[in-house]
Structures are given as C-alpha cells and as structure tokens.
Specification:
The complex is a heterotrimer of chains A (295), B (334) and C (396). Chain A is mainly alpha-helical and 295 residues long. Chain A contains 13 helices and no strands. Chain A has a domain of 165 residues: MetI-like fold, CATH 1.10.3720. The radius of gyration of chain A is 26 Å and the shape is flat. Chain C has 396 residues and is of the alpha/beta class. Chain C has two domains: 139 residues, 3-Layer(aba) Sandwich (D-Maltodextrin-Binding Protein, domain 2), CATH 3.40.190; 151 residues, D-Maltodextrin-Binding Protein, domain 2, CATH 3.40.190. In chain C, strand 1, helix 3 and strand 2 form a beta-alpha-beta unit. Chain C is globular and about 65 Å long. The chains are: A mainly alpha (295), B mainly alpha (334), C alpha/beta (396). At the A-B interface, helix 2, helix 4, helix 5, helix 6 and helix 7 of A face helix 1, helix 3, helix 4, helix 5 and helix 8 of B.
C-alpha cells in the first residue's frame, strides 16, 4: 500500500481519492475492531453480572440445602435441583450416547447413498427442532401414560442430545484416515472389531468433545423439562420415576418471582449453572485441540 | 492323535471361530442399524404424535380457522361450538416473526462484521481465541439470558425505548410500530436478547463462508492496489451474499424456536396482536410453555399442540432451506 | 496499533458498564413504604390468631411416605410452610405451584395425588375428571390484593373500589391521575403516569377470584368482556396488560415496572414489600386486607353441601371484599390405600394443627363452621368402597 501511495502522490486528482479510500479503510478497520471489542465487552458484561450477583448469594449451604418452605425466607439452596440436573442429564446421556454413536457408525460405515442421505438430513433437521416441541412430544408419548417424572425429562433431553452426538461422531469418523480401516480389514479383523477397536478409539477425542458439548447443552435446557419433569420445589427426589427438579427449572421458578431472597438463590443457581456449562465447554474444546485427528 | 485328525480338529475350531466372528459382526451391524432406526423413528414419531394430538382440535374447528384468527381466548371455548374458533394462532406467528426479525436485523450485520474481523483482520494468533469468545455466547443457558435480560438489560433499554417512541411514535404510518409506553417486557426486549442468542451461530457460519473465499482472488485484489476493506468487499462479501443469507436462515430457525428467554421478556399478552414493538405479546414457544400444564378448557391442550405442529413445520422449512443454501456454497467453492 | 487502542477503550467501557449495571441493578424502586399506623381493624393482637383446633384424627398407619400435589400459587406460601413442617412427621408433600388451572388439569389426568384451586371446579371440569367424583376441601382463607408501584403513593394511601378497578383492567382508565381515582383519594398526590396493568398469564384461581369480584361490582368490566360468563374464570380475555406467571410473577412485574398495578395474594405483596390498596366493601367502608378482615369475610357464610362457594363481596361490615378460600381437590374414591391414608393424615393435620400457622404469614385460619365442614369432607374418602376415617363433626 505504501509504495502505491507514493506512486500516486504526484497526480492531483488521484491523491485525494487515494486518501479517501485509505481513510475509509482505516475507518472500517476501526469500526470492525470496535465491534469485536464491543461484543467481547457484552460477553464480559453478561458473565460478570451473573457472577457478581451470584457470588453474593452463593455459599456452601446453597449447594447442600433445599429451598426454604417459604420462598421469601433467606438461606436455603438448590440442592434438589443440582441432584436432579446431574441425575436427569446422566440418564439422558446413558440413553443418547449409545444411540448417537451407533447411529453415527451406521451412517459412516454401513449406510449407502439414499439411506445415508435421508439419515443425515433427519439428524440435521432434528438439530433444529425447538426443544419445547420435543418436550410436547415426550408429554404426548410418555407423560400422559406414566405421569411427570425425571425419566420423561431424561427422554426429552436425550432427544436433544442425540443429533449433536451423531453429528460430532460422524464428523470425527470421517476424518479418520481410510488407510487405518483398510489395513485392519486386510489383517483379517472383522468390520465390527475394526470399528470398535481401531476407528472409534482414533476418533475418541472428537467424540468425547461432542458428547461433552451435548451434555453442556442438556444441562442448560429448561423448556422441555417444564412439560416432562415438572419440577419438585421442596424435596430432594432421587427416584427418576417421580417428578424431579433441575437447576435450570429452579432458576426459572425463583427468578420470575417477586421475592428478593428467591431471586438471590436464582442468581447463585445461575452462577453455578454457567460455571458448570462453561467448564464443560472449555474442557471439550481443549480436548479437541489435543486430539490426534485434526480438522 | 494322528496328524490328520489334529488338523481336522483345528479346522473345526477355526470354522467355529470364524462363525462366531461373523455372528458378532452381523450382530454389531444390526445393533448400529437399530440405533439409526431408533433415531429415524424418533423423528417420525415426533411429527406423528404432534399431529395426532392436534387432530381433535383441527377437525373440530377446521384447519384454516386457526390461521384465520388472531384472537386467543381459551376462556370462551365451548365443547359443542365450533365457530368462531377461540384459538386463533396468528398473533403467535406474528410475535415469533416480529421478535425474530428484530433479532436478525441486529444480529446479521454484527455477525458479518465479526466474521470479517475474525477471518481477515485480526492478527493470526487472536483468530481462534476470538472465535471462541463468540462461541461462548452459545454456552450461556437460555434461562440465564432471560434472567439477565430482566435485571440488567431492561433498565438499559428503558431510556432507549422511551427516546425511540417519542421520536418515531409521531410519524403517520409507521408510528404505530413504535408507539409507547414502554414498560419493560415487550417484543423489543425479547428481540434484543434473541439477537444475542443467535449471534454465535450466524457468526460461525459466516466465518466458514468467508474462509472459503479463494485466496487467489483476495491476493489479486490486493496486488491491484485495493485497500484491505475494498478487497474484503469485492472478493469476500460480494461472493458471500448467498452464504450470509443461508446463515441468516439458520439463525432465524434458531430464533423461532427459542422459548425460555423470550417467555421471560415478552410480556405474555395473548389476547390479540399488538402492533407496537414496545407492546407485550407472545410467541409460539412462549404460549406453549405458559399454558401447557394447565390447559383445561375444551380443546385447549389440542390447540397448543396445533401451535407446536405449526412451529415445527415453520422451523423445519427455514432450517432445511438454510442448510441447502449453505451446503451449496461449500460445494461450489471448495 | 489500532487493535491495542480499541482494546483499551473496550476495557474501560467494560469496567464502566459492569459496575454501572450492577450498581443500578435495582429495578424501578417500589413505592416508598411510609410508616403508617396499621388501621385499627388490623390490630397486631389479632395477627397472632391461632384457633388451636383439637385434632381428633390419629394418623393412619400404613400411609405412603410421599405425596405430590400441584395447583394454585395463591396457597403456595402457606402450603410450603405446611409441607416443610409436616415433613417431620414422615410424609413428604411435594407441591408444585403452577396455577389453579394446572392443578385442575393434573388432578383430572391423575398425574398428581391432589390438586389445589382457588375457585371451585366447574361442572364440566368435574365431568372430565378421569377418576370419578372429586371432593373440594377448603384449606385456608386468603385475600387477593391490588398492589401497585406508583411514585409518591405509599402504603395505605390508595383507596380503590370495584367499578374503578374494573375500568382500569378494561383499559378505560389509563392514567393514575384519572378523575375517578382522584375522587377516592383526595389527599394523595397522584402522578400523571401511565397505568401498567399486570395480570396473570397462566390459568389462575387468583384470577378467578379477582374476576368474580369484578363481575359482581363493575358493569364496565362485564360489558367489556362480553357478559358475565366470559368476564370471570381462571383465564379471561384480558383487554390490556402484561402477563406474569404465577402470583410471584405478577408481584415481580409490579415491583419492576413504574406505574404498575397488579392483583396477587396478600402474602406475596407483603413478602415483596409492595404496598396494596384499601378496597371499598359492600358496606361502603375502605377495608385493608389483613388476617382479621379476611376472617370476617369467611365467618358467617353459609355453605352449600359440596362446599363450592365464593367468599367475595360479602356483606359483613369489616369483611375484605376480595377474600377467597382455596380448595384441595381429592378424588373421593381412592385406589391406592397408602396414598389415600397419607392424604387423610396430611389434610386432617392441615385442618386442625395446621390452622395455627396461616395468621403468621397473613392468611386467615378457617372459622369453626368452615373447618368442621372441611373435616367432614375427609369422611367421604373411600378405598375400595370403605371409608377411611370417621371424624366426629360438631357444628355449633
């Protein structure tokens, strides 16, 4: 740029035009940099706001106590929600993991042409289904027969997680070099053994990343649980056949009430939830970076 | 034992072993095929059950009557009366579209700017961290966005909205869209939080679209004396309009389906359409979330399933369109 | 270079924003709670009203150890107190406060052990119940109050009556300094603010009680809503306003919105430190809502056999006009013996020892007649055709 500038410096009409273009370039660069900084600031604002409000209210009792009977009372915590989140998301992962990986393996190794296309389209489409619709489906399928329960909530979350796991696993499997598979088959190993002992372990890091991101997503979900697990405000419930609460449901319930003490608990809950989700997300990214198979 | 019978034993053992391996192989194949089938069935079942649950209301009132009317008054529903339909869903479509349009108007330009910055302007080492920063927006759960929105965002929006409504509220035709008063929960507030929530997905796709712009063209533009901004405009933006469009469609699909943050910020007024963006309203997901567990009037629950089915259809169309557009981009260029 | 400069600017901006936003995190300040003397009706002595009803019911053996209930947000504060106190006796009662509409829907579908609603179920709703006839068991008496957030109007300084409230909720009165409101409040400085009407977005018994009162007192409300059948109920076609989920959602919105008015159960308003209006009752006096005036409304009412009744707009001189009781909804013919016993144990405790708690959180215990009638409902609960208890009932 500098050389061209000096080259065009002599002619009268060219120089101001050039200067204008450079000004515009600098202006746009400033603008875009400011935009980026602004967005970074926005993220910091959101996170720090939650952190500041949450830190004031969080204490050891928050994690070990259940909410007080009277929502206006101070103290208490979201213990039942924390247990519920881990239990429901745990069950959901147990359901979604084999389904998701199995489906991805089928898609990558066995499916041909049209079936593969349809399956891929379906999983992509399932990614975009609003989670409230998934909740309504599980309500119609399960809750009307068996009542509200943690298990119904886990079903709904599993439906949300499966397409995420399928996509992540399939992408990773696609990146595994074909030579590995061919070498294994040439040595007489059956296809199934090849997949289980060679391909999946190679893609392991990426699959773990995908699963962790799916888990993080499931932990933050509220809408489908409103219609399936319903929530259980007062007591710790460990039986998934009963209604259970989750951290997200308790935050939702306490946040929209007019009680300051309930809102404080909600902020503490929000801080805890964000901390868990962010930790999972960042850990997943770190594992992806260190994986053997890179994009 | 003779050598021959020993060989026969070994061969039998080998044959058995092979048979077992083949069995395991076939079993495994059936297992994974089974999981794929379950996933397919789950998807089909979702659509099927939604339609089945909405059918009683659809047949009682007639399919078109839902989209004809914008009055949602479950309290006036009578089991034996089928006209007029008290469950008009038009205003939820309006609410969904309005909040999503506000969100896209804000998010798309910002996403394009961010994607440009990350792919072409930022120093090399900062590119991945900056991409992570934008992706982190997606990690914040919806309920936290709603909570933050109520306490942190609404007070900030108040003066902005009051100014907007006083400047623009008086204009003859479009003034109604900006009419005050602003109480807090509104289409406007929901739209702004939605914009923040769709930002990561639109930015991520724009980044991918910009990244496949051919380097040779970019270098050629620079070599010919273009400033960096001009190069970006000519070689990256101009050929990425379809990709940006696709990214917007996918972001739109995400905005359509967002439930909790919107419910907390939109004001939950379900009677009819309010034209001002500062007024209260409802979206398809928010009315489902609010009224689902207590829909006791005749055909109320089934009508909510109608809303859910409509939401599913609209979201699917937008998502599939978006996917088509974006996949075509990477095909032709790559 | 550009990058560094803008990053510095951004950093400063961030620090400024973060501190400012948290500092100004206080939402629109609620109207000042000036220290007014409580009206003589709401004497502190009466606030510790504890009837100490004798408990003739020995807890049945073989009761389930957990119960699930759902419904009214109106009753939630006292229900939570009952549940956490009763848990010490071995039965966990998990109550989900999702609105009376939700309670009715869940008990109809038999997905919960008991529902709770502030207005009795309609005949059509009873017919749709899957498990047979449903008993209405009134548990406690509470009041629906009009809370507000108006600059300069403190507690006890706002008087309203039914017709005016009806016009506000019909959208016909839109400013706080409207002549109709000023006429009732000559000494209160009312600002020229827009009224932000807040109502319930979910199916609510509190709404049912409130609209029942409006239907009885405000012809404008009835005509705006198209007649007396559609102007009351758990959900109505609100002409104006913001919708909040649950009584707690409404009190949150009122606290956060300048110029707001909303209807909530009394204990929510007190917990959220929101002022509430004195309402003109049938005898013409402006009555503050408190335990004594709520109890006055429930005292001399005669009740129908199935106890489906309303307590609003009663003629007693000190009665608060928007009073209500809340009904536990229980199937008469139970199929699960353990659950049925747990229900009887819990409800009989609530109706006897449990009546000592309401006054401490601004509900009112049931008067003797209503309490006895409620206990007699428990006698009707059967398992396999056999009644579970036979509580001796005395009507004085």
């Amino acid at each position: 740029m500098a050389t061209l500038d000096s080259l065009g410096g002599g002619s009268g009409s060219l120089a101001p035009q050039l200067r204008r273009r450079h000004r515009r370039n600098r202006g746009m660069t400033y603008l875009l940099t400011l935009l980026m900084a602004g967005i970074g600031a926005l993220l910091i604002w959101i996170l720090s706001y939650v952190a500041i409000k949450g830190v004031k209210a969080i204490n050891w009792g928050f994690i070990t106590d259940t909410p007080p009977g009277n929502p206006d009372a101070a103290g208490g915590g979201f213990y039942n929600g924390i247990i519920g989140t881990f239990e429901i998301v745990g069950i959901a992962t147990l359901i979604a993991l084999p389904l998701g990986i199995g489906c991805a393996v089928y898609l990558n190794q066995y499916a041909t042409g049209r079936i593969a296309g349809v399956l891929r389209l379906v999983t992509d489409v399932m990614l975009g289904i609003p989670t409230i619709v998934t909740g309504a489906f599980v309500y119609a399928l399960w809750v009307v027969e068996f009542g509200f329960s943690g298990f119904a909530g886990a079903l709904a979350l599993a439906l949300v997680m499966v397409p995420l796991i399928v996509r992540a696993t399939e992408e990773m499997l696609r990146l595994v070099p074909g030579d590995l598979k061919e070498a294994s088959l040439a040595l007489g190993v059956t296809q199934s053994r090849t997949i289980v002992s060679v391909l999946l372990p190679t893609a392991r890091a990426g699959i773990i990343t995908g699963v962790m991101l799916a888990v993080a997503r499931a932990m933050g979900e509220t809408a489908p649980l409103l219609l399936t697990a319903l929530g259980n405000d007062l007591f710790v419930e460990t039986n998934p056949g009963q209604r259970m609460s989750t951290l997200s449901l308790q935050i939702f319930g306490s946040a929209t009430g007019g009680f300051v003490n309930a809102q404080n608990r909600a902020w503490a809950g929000a801080l805890l939830l964000i901390a868990i989700v962010l930790t999972l997300t960042i850990m997943a990214r770190l594992i992806a970076r260190k994986s053997a198979v890179r994009r | 034992m003779s050598a021959a019978s020993h060989r026969a034993e070994t061969r039998k053992a080998q044959a058995l072993h092979q048979q077992r391996l083949r069995f395991a192989d076939t079993a495994f194949r059936w297992l994974v095929a089974g999981s794929a089938t379950v996933v397919l069935v789950a998807f089909v079942a979702t659509a099927f059950f939604l339609v089945r649950k909405s059918w009683p209301a659809l047949s009682h009132y007639g399919v078109l009557s839902f989209i004809d009317s914008s009055r949602w008054t479950p309290s006036t529903a009578v089991a034996t009366v089928s006209h007029p339909n008290p469950y008009g869903v038009l205003q939820f479509v309006y609410g969904t579209v309005l909040t999503s349009v506000i969100a896209m108007l804000l998010a798309v330009p910002v996403a394009v700017g961010l994607a440009l910055y990350i792919t072409d302007i930022a120093p090399q080492q900062l590119r991945r961290p900056l991409a992570y920063v934008v992706d982190l927006f997606a990690a914040v759960p919806s309920v936290v966005y709603g909570f933050w929105g109520i306490f942190a965002l609404l007070p900030v929006l108040h003066p902005i909205a009051d100014n907007l409504s006083s400047w623009l509220g008086g204009i003859p035709v479009i003034g109604g869209v900006f009419a005050g008063p602003f109480f807090g929960p509104s289409y406007f507030a929901a739209g702004i939080v939605l914009a923040i929530m769709v930002l990561p997905i639109v930015t991520a796709i724009c980044r991918e679209v910009f990244a496949v712009a051919p380097v040779s063209e970019k270098e050629a533009a620079l070599a010919l004396g273009a400033t960096r901004w001009e190069m970006l405009r000519m070689s990256v933006l101009k050929r990425s309009t379809a990709g940006i469009f696709g990214a917007s469609l996918l972001g739109l699909g995400r905005a359509f389906g967002e439930t909790i943050a919107v419910t907390m910020l939109i004001g939950n007024s379900v009677l009819s359409i309010t034209t001002s963006i500062f007024g209260q309203g409802a979206t398809m997901p928010s009315v489902i979330a609010n009224e689902f567990t207590e829909a006791t009037e005749p055909f109320h629950l089934q009508s909510l399933f109608v809303v859910g089915t409509l939401l599913l259809i609209i979201t699917l169309i937008v998502n599939v369109l978006g996917k088509l557009v974006v996949s075509r981009i990477s095909e032709t260029i790559a | 270079m550009i990058l560094r400069k803008t990053l510095l600017a951004a950093g400063a901006l961030v620090a400024l924003l973060a501190s400012a936003s948290v500092g100004s995190a206080k939402t629109a300040a609620p109207a000042q709670q000036s220290a007014t003397k409580p009206a003589p009706l709401c004497n502190t002595k009466l606030l510790t009203l504890r009837p100490h009803y004798p408990d003739p019911v020995k807890p049945l053996a073989g009761a389930a150890s957990s119960l699930s209930g759902a419904g009214s947000t109106f009753v939630n504060p006292i229900m939570s107190l009952w549940a956490s106190t009763y848990a010490k006796q071995g039965i966990k009662v998990a109550y989900q406060s999702i609105g009376s509409g939700g309670g009715i829907a869940q008990i109809q579908a038999q997905t919960v052990d008991f529902g709770d609603s502030d207005i009795p179920m309609l005949d059509s709703e009873l017919a749709a119940a899957k498990g047979g006839p449903i008993l209405h068991i009134p548990l406690v008496v509470g009041g629906v109050v009009l809370t507000y957030n108006v600059k300069g109007v403190g507690a006890g300084h706002l008087h309203l009556d039914g017709p005016t409230i009806g016009k506000i909720y019909a959208g016909e009165i839109t400013k706080w300094d409207d002549p109709a409101i000023k006429a009732m409040n000559p000494n209160t400085p009312l600002p020229s603010e827009n009224i932000a009407v807040v109502h319930r977005s979910d199916g609510s018994g509190t709404t049912g009680v409130f609209t029942d009162f409006l239907t009885k007192t405000s012809p404008d409300w009835v005509s705006k809503l198209g007649g007396a059948t559609t102007s009351q109920g758990k959900t109505v076609a609100w002409p104006v306003g913001i919708g909040g989920k649950g009584s707690d959602g409404v009190s949150a919105l009122v606290g956060q919105t300048e110029g707001a008015i909303g209807y909530v159960e009394l204990s929510y308003a007190i917990s959220a430190k929101l002022p509430y209006a004195y309402i003109k009752n049938r005898s013409g006096a402006y009555i503050p809502p408190c335990t004594a005036t709520l109890a006055a409304a429930a005292l001399k009412t005669s009740f129908p056999a199935d106890l489906r009744t309303s307590l609003t707009w009663k003629p007693a001189p000190n009665a608060y006009p928007i009073t209500a009781t809340t009904f536990a909804l229980v199937y008469q013919n139970q199929t699960d013996a353990a659950k049925a016993k747990a229900l009887v144990n819990f409800l009989s405790w609530v109706l006897t020892t449990g009546q000592n708690f309401p006054a401490s959180i601004n509900y009112a215990p049931e008067g003797k007649i209503l309490q006895q009638k409620a206990l007699s409902q428990l006698n009707k609960i059967t398992v396999g055709g056999k009644a579970l208890v036979n509580i001796p009932i005395s009507f004085k």
